[in-house]
Amino acid sequence: MEIREYTDGDWPSVWPIFREVVTAGETYAYDPDWSSEQAREVWVECPPGHTVVACEGTRVLGTAKMGPNRPGRGAHVATASFMVAADARGRGVGRALGEYALSWAQAQDYEAMQFNAVVESNHAAVRLWQELGFQIIGTVPEAFAHPTLGRVGLHIMHRRL
Q1: What is the pLDDT along the chain (161 residues), one digit of tens a residue?
Q2: What domains are defined for the chain?
Q3: How far is Cα 14 from Cα 40, in angstroms, rounded to an integer?
Q4: Helix/strand/coil (H, E, C) string of 82-131?
Q5: Element (H or E) spanning 145, and its range?
Q6: Fewer CB within 10 Å, N or C, the chain?
Q7: CA–CA separation, 17 vs 25, rounded Å?
């Protein structure tokens, strides 16, 4: 598996992953009715942000975006978001993307990384981020409308770099 910088030619492969993850409604609060163009505007980061794809040959298995958590006085803390194709889960794609994001943030001289909204019922993601050194620093109760579990909390997770 190779992780490389996203190019505009990758969108036809990223869009189905984005649509699949958002339509499932279990991990992102994005609108499932967004068009491809609306999704692209949200997912593909402009500098100083960075978007990547995880590939096996020519097949895109997952994608991540990263950059400053907030502008101005909050720009020393990075954030990142990740999506992995359903049939590629459990193969280390998310871990590889997470490790890449942490390395990228360190190379860019960020002091920490913060995830603002990790759905508490997304146990695989919570476990992975904890294994990579993140701590849950708070949970916003009932902040996410899960399609089968009802309202569940959103964890705020943080790690110093």
Answers
A1: 999 999 999 999 999 999 999 999 999 999 999 999 999 999 999 999 999 999 999 999 999 999 999 999 999 999 999 999 999 999 999 999 999 999 999 999 999 999 999 999 999 999 999 999 999 999 999 999 999 999 999 999 999 99
A2: 2-160 (3.40.630.30)
A3: 9
A4: EEECHHHCCCCHHHHHHHHHHHHHHHCCCCEEEEEEEECCCHHHHHHHHH
A5: strand 135-146
A6: N
A7: 13
Structure tokens at 37: 């163009």
Altogether, the residues listed in the chain come to a count of 161
Token representation of residue 137: 């620093």
Record the tokens describing residue 57, joined without a space.
């040959």
Tokens at 145, concatenated: 């409308």
